[in-house]
Design brief:
GO terms for molecular function: ATP binding; hydrolase activity; nucleic acid binding; RNA helicase activity. The protein is an alpha/beta fold and 214 residues long. The protein has a single domain, classed as Rossmann fold, CATH 3.40.50.300. The chain has nine helices and seven strands. The protein has a seven-stranded parallel β-sheet with strand order 3-4-2-5-6-1-7, sandwiched between helices. Strand 3, helix 5 and strand 4 form a beta-alpha-beta unit. It starts with 9 loop residues before the first helix and ends in a 5-residue tail after the last strand. The relative contact order is 0.19. The chain binds adenosine-5'-diphosphate and magnesium ion (MG). The site of adenosine-5'-diphosphate has 13 residues, from helix 3.
C-alpha cells in the first residue's frame, strides 16, 4: 500500500514525498480510511508507530475538502498532554501546511499568555495545544470553538493521567459544531477512564487497535 492509494490532495502527497514517506505504517493504513470517511475514531498502537500522520493527514484533507463548511476559526484543534509532545506534532503539522493556505499556531503551557491571545485573535485554522492552557484562553474568551470541525485527542490516556479530564470536557462543551469529528489516540483503550471520556466526547466511534498496548 502507498499513500497515493488514499484520496489525498496532491499537495499532501507532495509534502509526504518531501518528508521521504511513501508507504503508510500499519496504524496509518487502518486509521486513515476511518478518519477520512468522517467517522469518529478511537485508536491505539505503540509509541513510534506513526500515529501523528494518522490524524494530521485526514485532518488536513478534511480542511481542504470542506473549505466552506465552517467560517469560524479555529477549525481543527489538536490536544496533547505535554509541551514536548505538542511541539513534535506542531513540527510535523508545519511541514504539511507549508504547501497549503492554512495557518497554524501552538498554544502551550509555560509560554506568554498575552502573546498567545494575540495569535488566537488572528484566526488560525489549526491550533495545537496543551489542554490546561487552551482551557484558560477559553475562559478568557480568547477563542471560540463553535466553528470547530475536528478535535483530536492525542495521548488521551496521558492527558487523563495528568488530570485534564475537566478541561477536556469544557473544550468539548464549547466545541458544539454539529458536524464535529473527534479522533482519540491512546496507548491503551481498555481503561475505564478512557471509555468514560470517549462516551462523553465521541459519537459512535470506530475502534482500531494495532498490536500490544504499551
Ligand atoms: P507515535 O505517535 O505512534 O509515537 P510518530 O507519529 O511520532 O509515532 O512517528 C514516529 C516516527 O515515525 C517519526 O519519526 C515519523 O516521522 C516516522 N514516520 C511516521 N510515518 C511514517 C511512514 N509512513 N513511513 C516512515 N516513517 C514514518
Ligand atoms: Mg504520538
Amino acid at each position: 500500500m502507498q499513500f497515493s492509494d488514499f484520496s489525498l490532495d496532491k499537495r499532501l502527497l507532495q509534502s509526504l514525498e518531501h518528508m521521504g514517506f511513501t508507504a503508510p505504517t500499519e496504524i496509518q493504513a487502518q486509521a486513515m480510511p476511518v478518519a477520512l470517511a468522517g467517522k469518529d475514531l478511537m485508536a491505539s498502537s505503540k509509541t513510534g508507530s506513526g500515529k501523528t500522520l494518522a490524524f494530521l493527514l485526514p485532518a488536513l484533507q478534511r480542511m481542504i475538502r470542506t473549505k466552506a463548511l465552517s467560517k469560524k476559526d479555529p477549525r481543527a484543534l489538536i490536544l496533547l498532554p505535554t509541551r514536548e509532545l505538542a511541539n513534535q506534532v506542531y513540527g510535523q503539522l508545519r511541514l504539511l501546511v507549508a504547501n497549503t493556505q492554512f495557518k497554524s499556531i501552538s498554544i502551550l503551557g509555560g509560554e506568554n499568555f498575552n502573546d498567545q491571545a494575540k495569535a488566537l485573535a488572528r484566526d488560525p485554522h489549526f491550533v495545537v495545544a496543551t489542554p490546561g492552557r487552551l482551557a484558560d484562553h477559553l475562559t478568557h474568551n480568547h477563542l471560540y470553538l463553535n466553528g470547530l470541525e475536528l478535535l483530536v485527542l492525542d495521548e488521551a490516556d496521558r492527558m487523563l493521567d495528568l488530570g485534564f479530564a475537566e478541561q477536556l470536557k469544557a473544550i468539548h462543551k464549547a466545541a458544539d459544531h454539529k458536524r464535529r469529528q473527534t479522533l482519540m489516540f491512546s496507548a491503551t483503550l481498555d481503561h475505564q477512564e478512557i471509555n468514560d471520556i470517549a462516551a462523553e466526547l465521541l459519537n459512535s466511534p470506530e475502534h482500531v487497535a494495532i498490536g500490544a498496548a504499551n
